[in-house]
C-alpha cells in the first residue's frame, strides 16, 4: 500500500481524490493513478470531493 507523501495524520481530514492510497509504487501515481483503481472507485472519489466542496447539497441533518 502506497500513501501520498502529504497524507494527513488526522483520521478526520477530507482527502482529495489524488491523495488516496493505492496498491502500486508511488512513481506510478502521476501517470497511471486512475488506471490502477477500479473505474467506479476513481469516479466516486471525484464526485464525493465535488459534493463536499459544494457544501454537501441534499444532505439531511441525520445523514
Q: Tell me about the largest β-sheet.
A: none
Shape: globular
Helical coverage, percent range: 25-40%
Order of secondary-structure elements: HH
Based on secondary structure, the structural category is: mainly alpha
List how many beta strands DSSP finds. 0
Mean pLDDT: 77
List unreliable stretches of 5+ residues.
Answer: none
GO molecular function, one term: helicase activity
Keywords: ATP-binding, Helicase, Hydrolase, Nucleotide-binding
Organism: mine drainage metagenome
Protein name: Type III restriction-modification enzyme helicase subunit
Description:
One of its GO terms (molecular function) is helicase activity. This is Type III restriction-modification enzyme helicase subunit. By secondary structure, the protein is mainly alpha-helical. The chain has a domain at about 15-55. About 30% of the residues lie in helices and about 0% in strands. It has two helices and no strands. It starts with about 30 loop residues before the first helix and ends in a 10-residue tail after the last helix. The mean pLDDT is about 75.
Features:
hydrolase; nucleotide-binding
Topology:
Blueprint (H helix, E strand, L loop, with lengths): L28 H4 L6 H15 L10
Keywords: ATP-binding, Helicase, Hydrolase, Nucleotide-binding
GO molecular function, one term: helicase activity
Protein name: Type III restriction-modification enzyme helicase subunit
